[in-house]
Specification:
The chain has 305 residues and is α/β, with parallel strands linked by helices. It is 39% helix and 17% strand. The chain has one domain: NAD(P)-binding Rossmann-like Domain (Rossmann fold, 3-Layer(aba) Sandwich), CATH 3.40.50.
Length: 305
């Protein structure tokens, strides 16, 4: 049965594919966006659009009319050098943006069945070889603090009528963007290899499984934090080897930590830190991963080139 679903971040790397999938499943889409005209050219015909500057104001009340679910994905990308302005944008578009969305929903008197909000495995911070389930505490770095505030703001949407799901999304693999797009060039030039010492854990996930988990959370009584990562996290050196196999290139040229820090500043911590995040809860809840295997996931992503 089709629902009316309000979506933020619909034009992003996950959002565009999600919208296409949801419409194909028979759902009606309502999108909050900063640029309705641009969004209308990217998203399925029949989508309704409302203008919203997420960290500045609450959304218009009419956007919430008749909605059954909210999927909240919007936020400034974490990719790039983290200067003061970038860090403020990362924080405000997530924490203040989520608070504004929830406030707008409540002011409009909307009671969706479910409020699904993106979060990230940055919640856990740098944890070495520790196995991380949803029950582990947050880390203590910048992005962990952002994710904690982000999730807290999202939980304010919960009530007896509305269940909340906070998806802690890992390193997303998909064609047209994400981690693979940023890593392809060095491998094409025969100079690909591990990032830093390569021993850090990268908890990756195929974009199809992020979308699959969102759809599963729409249709099943899932509640609370949920790790959106593959059941098979990989050390970065093994990730690099898998990239090499998929592209038929060597994977022996490491990118030293000092060079990454010099180039990317604070963002380098996300590439060099270790997060061994487990997808046990998703599996126990009954979700079947489409791409649990890294080689198969990379082969699918690179098949579009």
């Amino acid at each position: 049965m089709g629902r009316t679903i309000l979506i933020t971040g619909a034009t992003g790397f996950i959002g565009q594919e999600l919208c296409a999938s949801l419409q194909q499943a028979g759902h009606e889409l309502v999108v909050l966006t900063r640029r309705p005209d641009e969004a209308s050219a990217l998203l399925p015909e029949g989508t309704r659009f409302f203008h919203w500057e997420n960290h500045e104001t609450i959304p218009p009340a009419e956007a919430f009319a008749g909605i059954n679910a909210v999927i909240h994905l919007s936020g400034e990308t974490v990719v790039g050098r983290w200067n003061a302005n970038k860090k403020k944008a990362i924080h405000d578009t997530r924490v203040l943006g989520t608070a504004n969305l929830v406030q707008g929903m409540q002011a409009a008197g909307a009671t969706p069945e479910v409020f699904i909000s993106a979060s990230a495995i940055g919640y856990y911070g740098d944890r070495g070889d520790e196995e991380l389930t949803e029950f582990e505490p947050a880390g203590d770095d910048f992005l962990a603090d952002v994710c904690s505030g982000w999730e807290a703001a999202a939980r304010e949407a919960e009530s007896d009528a509305t269940r909340g799901v906070q998806l802690r999304i890992g390193v997303v693999l998909g064609h047209g963007g994400g981690a693979v797009a940023s890593m392809k060039t060095p491998f094409k030039l025969f100079c690909g290899g591990p990032v830093g010492n390569g021993r850090q854990w990268w908890s990756w996930v195929h974009r199809a499984d992020v979308i699959g988990l969102i759809q599963y959370a729409l249709d099943n009584p899932v509640q609370g934090a949920l790790n959106a990562t593959s059941p098979e996290p990989a050390r970065q050196k093994d990730f690099a080897k898998a990239m090499g196999r998929a592209m038929k290139r060597p994977a022996f040229m490491p990118a030293p930590a000092f060079a990454i820090k010099a180039a990317l500043g604070g963002f380098s911590t996300e590439l060099l830190s270790s997060k061994r995040v487990l997808a046990n809860r998703a599996v126990e809840l009954g979700y079947t991963f489409q791409y649990p295997d890294l080689d198969a996931a990379l082969a699918e992503v690179l098949s579009h080139d």
